Structure to design on (467 residues):
């Protein structure tokens, strides 16, 4: 078994990307860089869909795409596989481990024994790395945990075959071929990542997506108290704060992560303008945190008037304006 | 957020892990810091669990009053919705909805009950004899 170094990150998919690439000798990769090359920042409010009986909102791009895009940008070949039969999935994993490989697995959070009970929900797009087997226990590196853990054969099978929305179906993935990565390649990957991300946030012609999507949520928040009553409306706000990412980041966290990426990109590209946009993104992150504090006052039931909901809605409008400004800059920067 | 401002509020993560936060250090550059939790997030989670408790006790009431079958209670208790339960049991959603009625629940054979019991991690006996 080859040696494995655990990397703790703010977000699971970035973490798996960083650990697997570093293991294959991509030394320069960092979490912010992986997030930026993968154009990870996003906003979408999906109407007519509920998660845990609250609004369905995501602050990052589709699960799986950060890993996919980052690897593609660095010309890293990836293999992936899904299974119908759990037994086959386990055999395949064992065979990869026997070859000394480390693999990423998509899993459901609900049955993960090393998470606190309060954090276990039916969320199926969590990612972790299996890097070995000792006796009948798999050695697991979960990027949001401080240290590595382990899972029994049954436990791992259960989380790999969790059911419900985004069921992982034993999804397993790993880099197979990593070539030399030139400075030039890194620079063009950064440019592509930034341009794609600003298009995603600005140009998708659907009102629930990107910076417009934040306004959409703002409008909804104004109406929630009237529509659902103070209690349920408060719970909806709580849901936004939980951000469908029980552990790690959240709305603000992803903005800080993107700001950190822009700071790194600014150094690599030797472009001061990127640093200025990084400051704007930090501002957006701070505003998201302010909004979470404002919302927590409401779901705690201390403040429940319509004007308090309006305050939240106004904050979201401000955030939308700040992010629009930042992404317009990014869209127009000559890189 | 500045490094010195990272919240360190007690949360359910205690004894499990700390979270990585991206923050600005003293010289204005991005750095990471570990946090044991944030009050605003903790309260959101607490409220979500209170809501689950409320929903399970509502389910108990319905079962007592003969308006729902035990499936409703365990579904709420395991935080499942119809998609999740359909996934674990392999039973179509519209059939599950029917099985939530006490009458059709009474008529279920053990094969079907076993599917539900497995999904809920309980025995068929527990499911059949659930006292609300």
């Amino acid at each position: 078994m080859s040696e494995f170094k655990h990397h703790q990150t703010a977000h699971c998919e970035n973490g798996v990307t960083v650990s697997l690439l570093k293991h294959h000798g991509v030394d320069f990769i960092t979490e912010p860089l992986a997030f930026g090359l993968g154009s990870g920042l996003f906003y979408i409010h999906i109407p007519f869909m509920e998660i845990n009986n609250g609004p369905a909102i995501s602050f990052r791009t589709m699960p799986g795409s950060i890993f996919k895009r980052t690897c593609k940008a660095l010309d890293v070949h990836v293999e992936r596989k899904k299974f119908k039969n759990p037994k086959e999935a386990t055999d395949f994993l064992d065979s990869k481990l026997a070859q000394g490989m480390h693999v990423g697995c998509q899993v459901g959070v609900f049955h993960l024994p090393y998470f606190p009970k309060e954090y276990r929900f039916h969320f199926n797009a969590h990612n972790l790395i299996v890097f070995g087997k000792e006796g009948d226990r798999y050695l697991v590196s979960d990027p949001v945990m401080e240290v590595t853990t382990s899972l029994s054969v049954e436990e791992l099978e259960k989380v790999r075959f969790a059911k419900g929305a985004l069921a992982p179906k034993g999804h397993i993935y790993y880099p197979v071929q990593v070539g030399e990565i030139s400075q030039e390649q890194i620079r063009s990957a950064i440019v592509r990542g930034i341009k794609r991300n600003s298009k995603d946030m600005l140009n998708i012609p659907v009102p629930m997506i990107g910076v417009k999507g934040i306004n959409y949520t703002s409008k909804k928040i104004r109406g929630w108290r009237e529509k659902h009553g103070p209690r349920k409306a408060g719970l909806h706000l709580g849901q936004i704060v939980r951000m469908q990412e029980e552990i790690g980041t959240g709305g603000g966290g992803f903005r800080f992560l993107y700001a950190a990426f822009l700071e790194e990109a600014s150094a690599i590209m030797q472009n001061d303008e990127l640093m200025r946009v990084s400051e704007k993104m930090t501002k957006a992150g701070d505003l998201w945190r302010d909004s979470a504090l404002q919302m927590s006052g409401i779901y705690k039931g201390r403040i429940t008037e319509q004007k308090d909901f309006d305050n939240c809605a106004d904050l979201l409008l401000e955030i939308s304006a700040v992010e629009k400004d930042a992404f317009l800059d990014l869209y127009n920067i000559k890189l | 957020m500045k490094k010195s401002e990272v919240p360190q509020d007690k949360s359910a993560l205690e004894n499990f892990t700390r979270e990585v936060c991206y923050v600005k250090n003293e010289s204005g550059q991005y750095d990471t810091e570990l946090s044991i939790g944030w009050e605003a997030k903790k309260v959101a989670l607490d409220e979500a669990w209170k809501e689950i408790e409320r929903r399970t006790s509502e389910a108990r009431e319905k079962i007592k009053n003969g308006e729902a079958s035990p499936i409703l209670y365990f579904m709420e208790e395991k935080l499942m919705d119809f998609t999740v339960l359909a996934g674990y049991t392999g039973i179509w959603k519209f059939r599950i909805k029917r099985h939530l009625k006490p009458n059709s629940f009474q008529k279920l054979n053990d094969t079907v009950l076993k599917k539900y019991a497995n999904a809920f991690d309980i025995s068929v006996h527990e499911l059949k004899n659930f006292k609300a």
In short: DSSP finds ten helices and eight strands in chain A. Chain A touches chain B through 51 residues (CB under 8 Å).
